[in-house]
Amino acid sequence: MTGMHLLLSGIVGSVAYGLAGPGSDVDRIGVFAASTVAFHGLHPPRESVVTTDPDETLHECGKYARLALSGNPTATELMWLPEECYETRTEFGERLIGIRAAFLSAPRVRDAYLGYASQQFRKLTSRDSSVGGRRRSAKHARHLARLLHQGRVLYATGVLEIRLADPEWFRAFGERVAGGALAEAEALVAAAERDFARIRTPLPERPDEETVERWLLDVRAAHLPR
Question: How far apart are CA 152 and CA 158, in angstroms?
């Protein structure tokens, strides 16, 4: 994409979580800056660029900041990846990692992780019996369990755990749910809701938007014509 300056990118998804199998896709996400003056023209830059070969999602830095401030799990995890999962790290990318805590707030973390996990549960309850249905169900169940686990750890500690300590548990859980143990998934969601209600979180009530905006304005200033 012409005029796109990649600031930070890396491998996310099952590879980053430690859940990848032989047939797993490699998913990538990144943040880019567009030319600042282009936002004032007739055709503003695209906010997101999505490709499927390879599987990659790139967000313009303004949109990325808004997604991460909302608690979006996929956007947030880019700032917390294991070192080996990063593929592009510029000065502004390093600064973004350095202010990752500024994006966090207790209500948005709770609502985002519970909300995305609930989406996975709804997919489980509406699954069809077509070829590959069980495989998809196992995947939805793994994602449900992973989101609830990561959300609770983030809510309790202020740290997002990307690489799962016990990936086999999540794989086994997915197979059990896909095999018919839907009640186990429902119980996991209910337990997470209780945990979020009782945990004393170190996260603030609101994110530090001033710090995030300072980073974003510095990016904009750096991408003005010289």
Answer: 10
- How far apart, in whole angstroms, are the C-alpha atoms of residue 131 and residue 150? 30
Q: CA 132 → CA 126, 139, 170, 183, 225, distances in Å?
A: 14, 11, 19, 21, 51
pLDDT at 226: 62
pLDDT confidence of residue 128: 53
Instruction: Kindly list the domain boundaries of the chain, sorted by start residue.
Output: 5-103+208-222, 106-198
The domain made up of 5-103+208-222 is a member of CATH 3.30.460: yes
pLDDT value at position 48?
92
Q: What are phi and psi of 75, to 5 degrees?
A: -65, -45
Which residues fall within 8 angstroms of residue 150, CB to CB, at 6 or more apart? 73, 113, 160, 161, 162
Rounded-to-integer distance, Cα 28 and Cα 16, Å: 10
Element (H, E) at 5: strand 5-12
Pairwise CA distance, residues 138 & 151, whole Å = 20
User: Residue 100 burial by CB count (10 A; 0-12/13-18/19+): exposed, middle or buried?
Assistant: middle
Q: How many helices (H) and strands (E) does the chain have?
A: 9, 5
Instruction: Dump pLDDT digits (tens) for 67-90.
Output: 999 999 999 999 999 999 999 999
Residues of the chain with pLDDT under 50: 129-131
Write out pLDDT tens, residues 154-177: 999 999 999 999 999 999 999 999
